[in-house]
Design a protein that fits this description.
alpha/beta, globular, adenosylmethionine-8-amino-7-oxononanoate transaminase activity, about 450 residues, PyrdxlP-dep_Trfase, pyridoxal phosphate binding, binds pyridoxal-5'-phosphate, Aminotrans_3, seven-stranded mixed β-sheet, Aspartate Aminotransferase, domain 1, 2 domains, Aspartate Aminotransferase, domain 2, transferase, 16 helices, single chain
Length: about 450
Protein backbone atom coordinates (compact mmCIF):
# COMPACT_ATOMS: atom_id res chain seq x y z
CA UNK A 1 0.00 0.00 0.00
CA UNK A 2 1.17 3.51 -0.78
CA UNK A 3 2.49 4.97 2.51
CA UNK A 4 0.03 7.34 4.07
CA UNK A 5 -2.73 6.32 1.65
CA UNK A 6 -6.21 5.88 3.09
CA UNK A 7 -5.80 2.09 2.86
CA UNK A 8 -2.44 2.10 4.65
CA UNK A 9 -3.83 4.33 7.40
CA UNK A 10 -6.93 2.18 7.69
CA UNK A 11 -4.82 -0.93 8.24
CA UNK A 12 -2.64 0.91 10.74
CA UNK A 13 -5.39 2.42 12.86
CA UNK A 14 -8.83 0.99 12.27
CA UNK A 15 -10.22 -2.18 13.88
CA UNK A 16 -13.09 -3.31 11.64
CA UNK A 17 -16.31 -4.94 12.76
CA UNK A 18 -17.34 -8.17 11.01
CA UNK A 19 -14.12 -8.45 9.06
CA UNK A 20 -11.50 -11.16 8.74
CA UNK A 21 -8.70 -9.12 10.28
CA UNK A 22 -5.83 -11.19 8.95
CA UNK A 23 -7.12 -10.91 5.40
CA UNK A 24 -7.75 -7.20 5.98
CA UNK A 25 -4.11 -6.63 6.91
CA UNK A 26 -2.96 -7.89 3.52
CA UNK A 27 -5.83 -6.85 1.27
CA UNK A 28 -6.93 -3.60 2.91
CA UNK A 29 -10.31 -1.91 2.63
CA UNK A 30 -12.46 -0.70 -0.21
CA UNK A 31 -12.59 2.98 0.66
CA UNK A 32 -15.88 4.53 -0.43
CA UNK A 33 -15.80 8.26 -0.91
CA UNK A 34 -19.19 9.15 -2.34
CA UNK A 35 -22.49 7.95 -3.67
CA UNK A 36 -25.37 8.78 -5.96
CA UNK A 37 -28.67 6.91 -6.00
CA UNK A 38 -27.92 3.17 -5.89
CA UNK A 39 -24.25 3.77 -6.78
CA UNK A 40 -21.21 4.36 -4.60
CA UNK A 41 -17.72 5.41 -5.69
CA UNK A 42 -14.27 4.54 -4.40
CA UNK A 43 -11.15 6.67 -4.11
CA UNK A 44 -10.26 6.07 -7.75
CA UNK A 45 -13.72 7.06 -8.94
CA UNK A 46 -14.68 3.46 -9.77
CA UNK A 47 -18.44 3.00 -9.59
CA UNK A 48 -20.31 0.16 -7.88
CA UNK A 49 -23.97 -0.74 -7.70
CA UNK A 50 -24.64 -1.08 -3.98
CA UNK A 51 -26.88 -4.14 -4.20
CA UNK A 52 -27.01 -4.37 -0.38
CA UNK A 53 -27.99 -0.74 0.29
CA UNK A 54 -25.00 -0.61 2.65
CA UNK A 55 -26.10 -2.92 5.45
CA UNK A 56 -29.65 -3.64 4.15
CA UNK A 57 -30.46 -0.11 5.08
CA UNK A 58 -29.90 2.88 2.76
CA UNK A 59 -33.42 2.71 1.35
CA UNK A 60 -33.41 6.12 -0.33
CA UNK A 61 -29.98 5.84 -1.94
CA UNK A 62 -26.77 7.70 -1.26
CA UNK A 63 -27.55 11.35 -2.05
CA UNK A 64 -31.01 12.25 -0.78
CA UNK A 65 -30.73 16.00 -0.29
CA UNK A 66 -33.97 16.27 1.68
CA UNK A 67 -32.50 14.14 4.46
CA UNK A 68 -29.40 16.32 4.57
CA UNK A 69 -31.57 19.45 4.73
CA UNK A 70 -33.75 17.96 7.49
CA UNK A 71 -30.63 17.25 9.54
CA UNK A 72 -29.22 20.75 9.03
CA UNK A 73 -32.53 22.41 9.92
CA UNK A 74 -32.83 20.41 13.14
CA UNK A 75 -29.16 20.96 14.00
CA UNK A 76 -29.78 24.70 13.84
CA UNK A 77 -33.01 24.56 15.84
CA UNK A 78 -32.10 22.15 18.60
CA UNK A 79 -29.05 19.94 18.01
CA UNK A 80 -29.57 17.89 21.14
CA UNK A 81 -31.94 17.30 23.91
CA UNK A 82 -32.81 14.20 25.87
CA UNK A 83 -35.97 12.34 26.77
CA UNK A 84 -35.21 11.27 30.38
CA UNK A 85 -37.00 12.53 33.50
CA UNK A 86 -40.12 13.97 31.83
CA UNK A 87 -38.20 15.95 29.17
CA UNK A 88 -39.13 15.76 25.53
CA UNK A 89 -38.76 17.53 22.19
CA UNK A 90 -40.86 17.80 19.07
CA UNK A 91 -38.96 15.48 16.68
CA UNK A 92 -39.26 12.51 19.06
CA UNK A 93 -42.94 13.26 19.76
CA UNK A 94 -43.71 13.59 16.05
CA UNK A 95 -41.81 10.43 15.18
CA UNK A 96 -43.47 8.36 17.91
CA UNK A 97 -46.89 9.54 16.73
CA UNK A 98 -46.03 8.83 13.09
CA UNK A 99 -44.68 5.33 13.77
CA UNK A 100 -47.82 4.41 15.69
CA UNK A 101 -49.95 5.59 12.80
CA UNK A 102 -48.22 3.20 10.37
CA UNK A 103 -47.80 0.23 12.74
CA UNK A 104 -48.98 -3.15 11.44
CA UNK A 105 -51.17 -3.68 14.53
CA UNK A 106 -52.45 -1.23 17.11
CA UNK A 107 -49.53 -0.04 19.19
CA UNK A 108 -49.56 2.09 22.31
CA UNK A 109 -46.12 3.67 22.76
CA UNK A 110 -42.74 4.03 21.05
CA UNK A 111 -39.32 4.06 22.72
CA UNK A 112 -36.16 5.07 20.83
CA UNK A 113 -32.59 3.77 20.69
CA UNK A 114 -29.64 4.16 18.32
CA UNK A 115 -29.24 0.74 16.71
CA UNK A 116 -30.99 -2.52 16.00
CA UNK A 117 -28.96 -4.23 18.73
CA UNK A 118 -30.04 -1.68 21.32
CA UNK A 119 -33.63 -1.97 20.12
CA UNK A 120 -33.57 -5.71 20.75
CA UNK A 121 -31.85 -5.29 24.12
CA UNK A 122 -34.75 -3.02 24.94
CA UNK A 123 -37.16 -5.71 23.77
CA UNK A 124 -35.57 -8.22 26.17
CA UNK A 125 -35.99 -5.83 29.09
CA UNK A 126 -39.58 -5.02 28.14
CA UNK A 127 -40.41 -8.73 28.08
CA UNK A 128 -38.95 -9.16 31.57
CA UNK A 129 -40.75 -6.07 32.80
CA UNK A 130 -43.96 -7.44 31.39
CA UNK A 131 -43.83 -10.77 33.22
CA UNK A 132 -42.64 -9.15 36.45
CA UNK A 133 -45.68 -6.89 36.29
CA UNK A 134 -47.91 -9.95 35.84
CA UNK A 135 -46.30 -11.41 38.99
CA UNK A 136 -44.81 -14.18 36.88
CA UNK A 137 -41.09 -13.38 37.12
CA UNK A 138 -40.26 -17.00 36.30
CA UNK A 139 -41.64 -16.51 32.75
CA UNK A 140 -38.26 -15.11 31.70
CA UNK A 141 -37.19 -17.41 28.90
CA UNK A 142 -37.11 -15.95 25.43
CA UNK A 143 -37.04 -18.11 22.32
CA UNK A 144 -35.38 -16.90 19.14
CA UNK A 145 -34.26 -19.07 16.24
CA UNK A 146 -31.13 -20.70 14.92
CA UNK A 147 -29.75 -18.37 12.19
CA UNK A 148 -31.92 -15.49 13.41
CA UNK A 149 -29.99 -12.21 13.64
CA UNK A 150 -30.89 -9.68 16.28
CA UNK A 151 -27.64 -7.80 16.91
CA UNK A 152 -24.39 -8.01 18.83
CA UNK A 153 -24.77 -6.44 22.27
CA UNK A 154 -24.72 -9.05 25.01
CA UNK A 155 -28.48 -9.62 25.16
CA UNK A 156 -29.19 -9.21 21.45
CA UNK A 157 -26.17 -11.37 20.52
CA UNK A 158 -27.70 -14.01 22.76
CA UNK A 159 -30.91 -13.80 20.73
CA UNK A 160 -28.89 -14.06 17.54
CA UNK A 161 -28.69 -17.70 16.54
CA UNK A 162 -25.30 -17.72 14.81
CA UNK A 163 -22.27 -19.41 16.39
CA UNK A 164 -19.84 -16.57 15.62
CA UNK A 165 -21.83 -14.32 17.91
CA UNK A 166 -21.62 -16.76 20.83
CA UNK A 167 -18.17 -18.30 20.63
CA UNK A 168 -15.61 -16.68 22.93
CA UNK A 169 -18.26 -14.60 24.69
CA UNK A 170 -19.95 -17.17 26.93
CA UNK A 171 -23.22 -16.51 25.15
CA UNK A 172 -26.12 -16.95 25.06
CA UNK A 173 -26.87 -15.53 28.49
CA UNK A 174 -29.25 -17.51 30.72
CA UNK A 175 -32.91 -17.78 29.67
CA UNK A 176 -32.35 -17.47 25.93
CA UNK A 177 -33.26 -20.50 23.79
CA UNK A 178 -33.11 -21.15 20.07
CA UNK A 179 -35.81 -22.86 18.04
CA UNK A 180 -35.42 -24.41 14.58
CA UNK A 181 -34.39 -22.45 11.53
CA UNK A 182 -37.34 -22.64 9.11
CA UNK A 183 -35.31 -23.05 5.93
CA UNK A 184 -37.36 -25.46 3.84
CA UNK A 185 -34.70 -25.99 1.14
CA UNK A 186 -32.11 -27.02 3.75
CA UNK A 187 -34.19 -28.68 6.45
CA UNK A 188 -37.36 -29.89 4.73
CA UNK A 189 -37.56 -33.68 4.71
CA UNK A 190 -37.88 -35.76 1.57
CA UNK A 191 -41.50 -35.68 0.39
CA UNK A 192 -42.48 -33.11 3.03
CA UNK A 193 -44.51 -30.18 1.63
CA UNK A 194 -43.76 -26.60 2.65
CA UNK A 195 -46.93 -26.55 4.75
CA UNK A 196 -46.02 -29.83 6.44
CA UNK A 197 -42.58 -28.45 7.16
CA UNK A 198 -44.19 -25.37 8.76
CA UNK A 199 -46.38 -27.64 10.88
CA UNK A 200 -43.30 -29.54 12.03
CA UNK A 201 -41.53 -26.30 12.94
CA UNK A 202 -44.54 -25.22 15.02
CA UNK A 203 -44.79 -28.67 16.63
CA UNK A 204 -41.12 -28.50 17.55
CA UNK A 205 -41.64 -25.07 19.08
CA UNK A 206 -44.50 -26.44 21.14
CA UNK A 207 -42.32 -29.36 22.28
CA UNK A 208 -39.60 -26.92 23.31
CA UNK A 209 -42.07 -24.82 25.31
CA UNK A 210 -43.47 -27.92 27.01
CA UNK A 211 -39.99 -29.25 27.78
CA UNK A 212 -38.96 -25.95 29.38
CA UNK A 213 -42.34 -25.52 31.06
CA UNK A 214 -44.79 -22.96 29.63
CA UNK A 215 -44.71 -21.13 32.95
CA UNK A 216 -41.05 -20.28 32.23
CA UNK A 217 -41.36 -19.16 28.58
CA UNK A 218 -42.22 -15.49 28.16
CA UNK A 219 -41.59 -14.50 24.55
CA UNK A 220 -40.65 -15.51 21.03
CA UNK A 221 -38.78 -13.17 18.69
CA UNK A 222 -38.44 -13.50 14.93
CA UNK A 223 -37.50 -11.56 11.84
CA UNK A 224 -40.21 -11.81 9.15
CA UNK A 225 -37.44 -12.87 6.71
CA UNK A 226 -34.15 -13.88 8.30
CA UNK A 227 -31.67 -11.46 6.78
CA UNK A 228 -28.11 -12.00 7.97
CA UNK A 229 -28.87 -15.70 8.44
CA UNK A 230 -29.10 -15.97 4.65
CA UNK A 231 -32.36 -14.33 3.49
CA UNK A 232 -34.50 -17.20 4.68
CA UNK A 233 -38.12 -16.74 3.68
CA UNK A 234 -40.55 -18.47 6.04
CA UNK A 235 -42.36 -21.47 4.55
CA UNK A 236 -46.06 -21.02 3.74
CA UNK A 237 -48.31 -21.00 6.83
CA UNK A 238 -45.29 -20.81 9.19
CA UNK A 239 -46.14 -17.69 11.18
CA UNK A 240 -49.82 -18.59 11.38
CA UNK A 241 -48.91 -21.92 13.02
CA UNK A 242 -46.18 -20.45 15.22
CA UNK A 243 -48.52 -17.74 16.52
CA UNK A 244 -51.18 -20.33 17.38
CA UNK A 245 -48.62 -22.09 19.61
CA UNK A 246 -47.57 -18.81 21.25
CA UNK A 247 -51.18 -17.93 21.97
CA UNK A 248 -51.84 -21.33 23.50
CA UNK A 249 -49.06 -20.85 26.07
CA UNK A 250 -49.44 -17.10 26.62
CA UNK A 251 -46.06 -16.27 25.09
CA UNK A 252 -45.45 -12.71 23.81
CA UNK A 253 -44.64 -12.33 20.13
CA UNK A 254 -41.90 -9.88 19.10
CA UNK A 255 -41.19 -8.96 15.47
CA UNK A 256 -37.69 -7.83 14.58
CA UNK A 257 -38.40 -5.55 11.61
CA UNK A 258 -34.88 -4.09 11.51
CA UNK A 259 -34.40 -5.25 7.90
CA UNK A 260 -37.95 -5.99 6.77
CA UNK A 261 -39.60 -2.78 7.95
CA UNK A 262 -40.38 0.14 5.59
CA UNK A 263 -41.45 -1.61 2.38
CA UNK A 264 -38.55 -4.03 2.01
CA UNK A 265 -40.79 -7.08 1.51
CA UNK A 266 -43.40 -5.24 -0.58
CA UNK A 267 -45.55 -4.07 2.35
CA UNK A 268 -44.83 -1.37 4.90
CA UNK A 269 -43.87 -4.13 7.36
CA UNK A 270 -42.70 -7.69 6.92
CA UNK A 271 -45.33 -8.48 9.57
CA UNK A 272 -47.99 -7.60 7.00
CA UNK A 273 -46.39 -9.75 4.32
CA UNK A 274 -46.37 -12.79 6.60
CA UNK A 275 -49.48 -12.26 8.74
CA UNK A 276 -47.60 -11.52 11.98
CA UNK A 277 -49.38 -9.77 14.84
CA UNK A 278 -46.62 -8.77 17.26
CA UNK A 279 -46.99 -7.42 20.80
CA UNK A 280 -43.61 -5.72 20.47
CA UNK A 281 -41.90 -4.55 17.26
CA UNK A 282 -38.33 -3.33 16.77
CA UNK A 283 -37.14 -1.36 13.75
CA UNK A 284 -34.06 0.60 12.63
CA UNK A 285 -31.99 0.88 9.42
CA UNK A 286 -34.49 2.18 6.81
CA UNK A 287 -36.24 4.16 9.55
CA UNK A 288 -33.78 6.94 8.70
CA UNK A 289 -32.48 5.44 5.44
CA UNK A 290 -29.46 5.02 7.75
CA UNK A 291 -28.42 8.65 7.30
CA UNK A 292 -28.26 8.87 11.10
CA UNK A 293 -28.39 6.11 13.72
CA UNK A 294 -31.84 5.62 15.18
CA UNK A 295 -34.02 2.66 16.12
CA UNK A 296 -37.41 2.28 17.71
CA UNK A 297 -39.43 -0.25 19.66
CA UNK A 298 -43.22 -0.16 19.59
CA UNK A 299 -45.27 -1.84 22.30
CA UNK A 300 -48.97 -2.58 22.59
CA UNK A 301 -51.11 -1.30 25.44
CA UNK A 302 -50.74 -4.49 27.48
CA UNK A 303 -46.95 -4.23 27.43
CA UNK A 304 -47.04 -0.50 28.06
CA UNK A 305 -49.27 -0.93 31.12
CA UNK A 306 -46.75 -3.42 32.50
CA UNK A 307 -44.03 -0.78 32.14
CA UNK A 308 -46.20 1.67 34.08
CA UNK A 309 -46.77 -0.88 36.84
CA UNK A 310 -43.07 -1.68 37.17
CA UNK A 311 -41.97 1.96 37.02
CA UNK A 312 -44.39 2.74 39.85
CA UNK A 313 -42.90 -0.06 41.92
CA UNK A 314 -39.31 1.11 41.52
CA UNK A 315 -39.92 4.80 40.91
CA UNK A 316 -38.68 4.91 37.32
CA UNK A 317 -38.74 3.08 33.99
CA UNK A 318 -35.21 1.73 34.37
CA UNK A 319 -33.92 1.86 30.81
CA UNK A 320 -32.91 4.43 28.19
CA UNK A 321 -30.00 6.00 26.35
CA UNK A 322 -28.45 9.47 26.26
CA UNK A 323 -29.39 9.54 22.59
CA UNK A 324 -32.87 7.94 22.85
CA UNK A 325 -34.86 9.85 20.25
CA UNK A 326 -31.97 12.17 19.37
CA UNK A 327 -33.69 15.18 17.76
CA UNK A 328 -31.52 15.30 14.64
CA UNK A 329 -31.84 11.56 14.00
CA UNK A 330 -35.58 11.74 14.70
CA UNK A 331 -35.99 14.67 12.28
CA UNK A 332 -34.17 12.72 9.58
CA UNK A 333 -36.34 9.66 10.27
CA UNK A 334 -39.49 11.76 10.03
CA UNK A 335 -38.36 13.15 6.70
CA UNK A 336 -37.57 9.61 5.51
CA UNK A 337 -41.09 8.43 6.35
CA UNK A 338 -42.50 11.51 4.62
CA UNK A 339 -40.53 10.72 1.46
CA UNK A 340 -41.79 7.10 1.48
CA UNK A 341 -45.32 8.48 1.43
CA UNK A 342 -44.87 11.37 -0.98
CA UNK A 343 -43.04 9.27 -3.55
CA UNK A 344 -45.29 6.27 -3.00
CA UNK A 345 -42.29 4.02 -2.38
CA UNK A 346 -44.68 1.13 -1.73
CA UNK A 347 -46.01 1.34 -5.29
CA UNK A 348 -42.45 1.58 -6.63
CA UNK A 349 -41.40 -1.55 -4.72
CA UNK A 350 -44.54 -3.20 -6.11
CA UNK A 351 -43.14 -2.49 -9.57
CA UNK A 352 -39.42 -3.23 -9.19
CA UNK A 353 -39.68 -6.01 -6.55
CA UNK A 354 -41.15 -8.49 -9.04
CA UNK A 355 -38.35 -7.57 -11.47
CA UNK A 356 -35.78 -8.58 -8.87
CA UNK A 357 -37.60 -11.80 -8.07
CA UNK A 358 -38.07 -12.65 -11.75
CA UNK A 359 -34.48 -11.70 -12.47
CA UNK A 360 -32.98 -13.94 -9.80
CA UNK A 361 -35.43 -16.76 -10.62
CA UNK A 362 -33.84 -16.72 -14.07
CA UNK A 363 -30.62 -18.01 -12.47
CA UNK A 364 -32.29 -21.03 -10.89
CA UNK A 365 -31.27 -23.21 -13.83
CA UNK A 366 -27.58 -22.21 -13.58
CA UNK A 367 -25.48 -25.24 -12.62
CA UNK A 368 -24.03 -23.42 -9.59
CA UNK A 369 -27.33 -22.21 -8.13
CA UNK A 370 -29.17 -24.50 -5.72
CA UNK A 371 -31.87 -22.19 -4.44
CA UNK A 372 -33.20 -18.77 -5.33
CA UNK A 373 -35.33 -17.11 -2.66
CA UNK A 374 -36.79 -13.78 -1.69
CA UNK A 375 -39.75 -11.46 -1.85
CA UNK A 376 -40.19 -7.78 -2.61
CA UNK A 377 -36.78 -6.13 -2.82
CA UNK A 378 -34.82 -8.70 -0.86
CA UNK A 379 -33.45 -11.94 -2.21
CA UNK A 380 -30.61 -14.44 -2.28
CA UNK A 381 -29.15 -17.14 -4.45
CA UNK A 382 -27.41 -20.08 -2.86
CA UNK A 383 -24.52 -21.70 -4.70
CA UNK A 384 -24.11 -25.44 -4.24
CA UNK A 385 -21.63 -28.06 -5.31
CA UNK A 386 -24.33 -30.48 -6.43
CA UNK A 387 -27.73 -29.19 -7.49
CA UNK A 388 -29.36 -32.59 -7.24
CA UNK A 389 -28.23 -33.57 -3.76
CA UNK A 390 -28.05 -29.92 -2.60
CA UNK A 391 -24.58 -30.67 -1.22
CA UNK A 392 -22.80 -27.51 -0.15
CA UNK A 393 -19.25 -26.61 -1.15
CA UNK A 394 -16.47 -27.27 1.30
CA UNK A 395 -16.50 -24.07 3.41
CA UNK A 396 -12.69 -23.95 3.03
CA UNK A 397 -13.21 -23.10 -0.65
CA UNK A 398 -14.93 -19.87 0.39
CA UNK A 399 -17.07 -19.85 -2.74
CA UNK A 400 -19.39 -17.11 -1.47
CA UNK A 401 -16.47 -14.88 -0.50
CA UNK A 402 -14.88 -15.54 -3.91
CA UNK A 403 -18.10 -14.46 -5.57
CA UNK A 404 -18.28 -11.23 -3.56
CA UNK A 405 -14.71 -10.39 -4.53
CA UNK A 406 -15.25 -11.02 -8.22
CA UNK A 407 -18.51 -9.07 -8.10
CA UNK A 408 -16.69 -6.14 -6.54
CA UNK A 409 -14.19 -6.19 -9.38
CA UNK A 410 -17.22 -6.11 -11.72
CA UNK A 411 -18.68 -3.08 -9.96
CA UNK A 412 -21.25 -4.85 -7.82
CA UNK A 413 -21.38 -4.87 -4.03
CA UNK A 414 -23.26 -7.88 -2.68
CA UNK A 415 -23.14 -9.75 0.61
CA UNK A 416 -21.91 -13.33 0.79
CA UNK A 417 -23.49 -15.31 3.61
CA UNK A 418 -21.71 -18.63 3.44
CA UNK A 419 -22.29 -19.55 -0.20
CA UNK A 420 -25.49 -17.54 -0.49
CA UNK A 421 -25.33 -14.16 -2.18
CA UNK A 422 -27.81 -11.63 -0.82
CA UNK A 423 -29.46 -8.71 -2.61
CA UNK A 424 -31.16 -5.85 -0.84
CA UNK A 425 -30.77 -2.79 -3.08
CA UNK A 426 -31.97 0.70 -2.20
CA UNK A 427 -35.76 0.85 -2.59
CA UNK A 428 -35.38 3.61 -5.19
CA UNK A 429 -33.64 1.30 -7.69
CA UNK A 430 -34.95 1.80 -11.24
CA UNK A 431 -35.83 -0.83 -13.81
CA UNK A 432 -32.68 -0.06 -15.75
CA UNK A 433 -30.45 -0.23 -12.67
CA UNK A 434 -32.01 -3.56 -11.78
CA UNK A 435 -31.07 -4.88 -15.23
CA UNK A 436 -27.56 -3.53 -14.77
CA UNK A 437 -27.27 -5.14 -11.33
CA UNK A 438 -28.41 -8.52 -12.62
CA UNK A 439 -26.06 -8.45 -15.60
CA UNK A 440 -23.10 -7.65 -13.32
CA UNK A 441 -24.27 -10.59 -11.21
CA UNK A 442 -24.48 -12.91 -14.24
CA UNK A 443 -20.97 -11.96 -15.36
CA UNK A 444 -19.59 -12.61 -11.87
CA UNK A 445 -21.38 -15.95 -11.62
CA UNK A 446 -19.85 -17.13 -14.88
CA UNK A 447 -16.40 -16.06 -13.69
CA UNK A 448 -16.83 -17.95 -10.41
CA UNK A 449 -18.01 -21.02 -12.33
CA UNK A 450 -14.95 -20.81 -14.59
CA UNK A 451 -12.61 -20.44 -11.56
CA UNK A 452 -14.17 -23.45 -9.86
CA UNK A 453 -13.73 -25.53 -13.02
CA UNK A 454 -10.09 -24.51 -13.44
N1 LIG B 1 -31.91 -7.12 13.83
C1 LIG B 1 -31.78 -7.42 12.54
C2 LIG B 1 -32.84 -8.19 11.85
C3 LIG B 1 -30.65 -7.01 11.83
O1 LIG B 1 -30.49 -7.33 10.54
C4 LIG B 1 -29.66 -6.26 12.50
C5 LIG B 1 -28.45 -5.81 11.79
O2 LIG B 1 -28.17 -6.17 10.68
C6 LIG B 1 -29.83 -5.99 13.86
C7 LIG B 1 -30.98 -6.42 14.49
C8 LIG B 1 -28.79 -5.24 14.62
O3 LIG B 1 -28.74 -3.93 14.21
P1 LIG B 1 -27.45 -3.02 14.50
O4 LIG B 1 -26.36 -3.52 13.62
O5 LIG B 1 -27.95 -1.64 14.10
O6 LIG B 1 -27.16 -3.10 15.94
Amino acid sequence: FVPNSASARDIAHHLHPYTNLKVHETEGPLVITGGKGVHVFDEDGKDYIEAMAGLWSVSLGFNEQRLVDAAIKQMKELPYYHTFTHKSHLPSIDLAEKLKSVAPVEMSKVIFQNSGSEANDTVVKLIWYFWNAQNKPEKKKIISRIKGYHGVTVASASLTGLPNNHRDFDLPIANILHADCPHYYRFGLEGESEEEFATRMADNLEKLILKEGPETVGAFIAEPIMGAGGVIVPPKTYFEKIQAVLKKYDVLFCADEVICGFWRTGNYWGSQTFGMKPDILSCAKALSSSYLPISAVMVNERVYQACVTESEKIGVFGHGYTYSGHPVAAAVALETLKIYEERDIGAHVGKVGPLLQKGIAGFASHPLIGEVRGTGLIGAMEMVQDKKTRAAFDPKLGVGAKFAKIAQKNGLIVRAIGDSVAFCPPLIITEQEMGDMLSRYAKSLDEVAAQLKA
